[in-house]
Amino acid sequence: MKKTFLLISLLCLTLLFPAAAFAQKDTIRLGVPPWPGVTVKTEVATQILEAMGYETQQLEIGPPIIYKGLTTGEIDAYLAAWLPQQTDMFEPLKEKGAIDVININLDDAMTGFAVPTYVWEAGIHSVADLAPNADKFDSTLHTIEVGSGMHTTTEEMVKNDVASLGDWELASSTTPAMLTEVNEKTKSKEWVVFHAWKPHWMTIKIDMKFLEGVPGSEDLISESVVYNVASPDFQERFPQARKFLEKFYVSGDTQSAWIHSFSYEKKDPEDVAREWIANNMETVSQWLDGVETTDGRPAIDAVKNAVK
Fold first, then answer.
1. At the fourth CATH level, which superfamily is domain 5-108+224-306?
2. What CA–CA distance (Å, rounded) separates 269 from 249?
3. CATH superfamily entry for domain 110-222
4. What is the mean predicted confidence (pLDDT) over 201-220?
5. Strand positions, DSSP E, the chain
6. Contact (CB, 8 A) for 85 and 33
7. So which residues are the signal peptide here (predicted)?
8. Whole-angstrom distance, CA of residue 165 vs CA of residue 174
9. 97-144 residue pLDDT tens
């Protein structure tokens, strides 16, 4: 079954896809922010849903539009409700019953600062350990691009002299450029501290450790959970799909591996998902325990047939 990938703004969502166009009862429309891990995760779920007999449509749009679409009948499901990062969008809708909070699909996500393992082994375990070793780090924090949430919170930490970092510089760049710089420094065993998060391929390619936070670093250094959420009528319209999503959970290591294959090795997400499903049928069987296809057959049998 053919999937549709659309990169659209809120204006396009309103003009190109009015409510009537989204009223296909048998089509599950998934909101997909353009993040590598979510791209592959949604593709994995999509291939399973299609094997179960559902039509699917993937809409590549940002979280604010997705949350709005969940409440207006334009989006059916979203597999990337990150908390606490999206709390301001998530909680009001949850409290009003405007979204169906299905389950947690990832519970070991992290954001913060990291150092190479050889630096960690030398005693740098916390943000509090940075300033006393400023000379070894050239008083520099390597960060992702200006305007990102992580960069903004790091600027606030420096501005507020958290952990005596008030005189440190921010070396800001895109994520690929930052990680290239980190890789170069690790080759010569230089000391470097950098923005890090998981799931991401950096946790596979770089031997690294996350630093513990200090008072004032909470907005940057945090653990996150990710929910599967859906429109309020999802259970009624797609009961077996919801039953699958209730069990759809992946580890941070699994999602990091997906990101590595897609974002680092440049494989197509369809191929990454298909290969992973075929090689991890035991996990897929757990997700589909008791789940049926749209015509009443065991869903796991349909998935096995689809990946042959």
1. Periplasmic binding protein-like II (3.40.190.10)
2. 18
3. Glycine betaine-binding periplasmic protein; domain 2 (3.40.190.100)
4. 96
5. 5-7, 27-31, 55-60, 77-83, 100-116, 140-143, 169-172, 194-198, 208-210, 222-230
6. no
7. 1-23
8. 22
9. 999 999 999 999 999 999 999 999 999 999 999 999 999 999 999 999
